[in-house]
Specification:
Blueprint lengths: L3 E7 L2 H17 L4 E7 L2 H4 L5 H4 L7 H8 L5 E5 L11 E6 L7 E4 L14 E3 L3 H10 L4 E3 L5 H9 L5 E5 H6 L6 E4 L14 E6 L3 H7 L5 H17 L7 E7 L5 E8 L6 E8 L4 H14 L2 H8 L1
Parallel strand pairs: 1-2, 1-3, 6-7, 6-8
Antiparallel strand pairs: 3-10, 4-10, 5-8, 5-9, 11-12, 12-13
Helix pairs in contact: 9-10
Length: about 300
């Protein structure tokens, strides 16, 4: 087995925490394995004053890490699955998906304990088209304002009074021990999460079978089935673009998958949602079937308007 495993990560507080978490789990399995973490900044980290939808989408957060893998500078990269485009560069593979944390979105505020408490015209920070589309269906009388930056940067902006509330992912706040900031957990009926939200993935080179064997014990098959179904929706609808698209698959008590996905105009004027059940053995087909339902109901016009 390799004596040293080289890991590359973004330099944000959350990304490094996630990388360290993977390192800790691997070292528990392989006490003699030396694991090195290299932190780098991606294009998405440098450009923080423009919406992702306008500068190329979430792939900006992973391309630099993937370049490290392809050029042999690193063996693995740790990603938030929600940041990963639907397609992988040739030669790379998502070799392990860790057990998913809470996939829900949350409301963070210093002065208001719920969405209902927010006064008209209150400033709510989010740059996500997906969150805008769903939140505008809950409270169209509020002002949604652009919000970029790492989690700690966003929380600082809130504390400085730039926003009345923020919409963030629960998993990131849990990992950073910032749960005290959470005022409200959105139900998945009100706010369906981003595809892959709450899950971590480990990417490596397709031909590096030794590394794949090392990380295989971290692979959580139930989560992987859910992620495969969700990402299949994204791929079918054009996952390379930053879309107002949400999706969540859950494993039912009978062993089947239930997949729900939705698309909507960011202003909340049009909204389409679809749910289907299927088997874990056909997760990809389930995602394609849900995408087909969305398209049959008019999703293409919404996506074209936003991409």
């Amino acid at each position: 087995m390799k004596k040293t495993l080289r890991m590359v990560s973004r330099t944000s507080q959350l990304a490094l925490f996630q990388a360290q978490s993977v390192k800790t789990q691997l070292q528990a399995l392989y006490p003699d394995l030396i694991i090195e973490i290299t932190g780098i900044k991606t294009e998405g980290d440098y450009i923080i004053d423009t919406s992702l939808a306008k500068i190329g989408g979430k792939g900006l957060f992973v391309k630099a890490l993937q370049d490290y893998l392809l050029t042999g500078k690193a063996d693995i990269a740790v990603h938030s699955v929600k940041d990963m485009p639907a397609e992988f560069p040739e030669g790379l593979i998502l070799a392990a998906i860790l057990k998913r944390d809470d996939p829900r979105d949350v409301l963070v505020s210093q002065h208001f304990s719920s969405v209902a408490e927010l006064p008209p015209k209150a400033r709510v920070g989010t740059s996500s088209l997906r969150r805008q589309a769903q939140f505008n269906r809950l409270r169209s009388d509020l002002t949604l304002e652009s919000l970029r930056g790492n989690v700690d940067t966003r929380l600082k902006k809130l504390s400085h009074g730039q926003y009345d509330a923020l919409i963030l992912a629960a998993a990131g706040l849990h990992r950073l021990n910032e749960t005290a900031a959470i005022k409200h957990y959105f139900s998945t009926e009100d706010m369906l999460p981003a595809i892959g939200q709450g899950a971590l993935g480990i990417e490596c080179r397709l031909d590096d079978t030794e590394t794949q064997q090392i990380i295989q014990p971290l692979h959580h098959l139930p989560t992987a089935h859910c992620i495969l179904a969700e990402r299949s929706v994204s791929a079918a609808l054009g996952g390379g673009c930053q879309l107002p698209l949400a999706g969540l698959a859950t494993l039912e008590s009978n062993g089947s998958l239930q997949l729900t996905s939705c698309v909507g105009m960011p202003n909340g004027s049009r909204f389409i949602r679809a749910t289907l059940n299927g088997q874990t053995t056909s997760a990809t087909d389930l995602g394609k079937a849900v995408a087909a339902l969305l398209l049959a109901d008019g999703a293409e016009a919404i996506l074209k308007a936003c991409c």
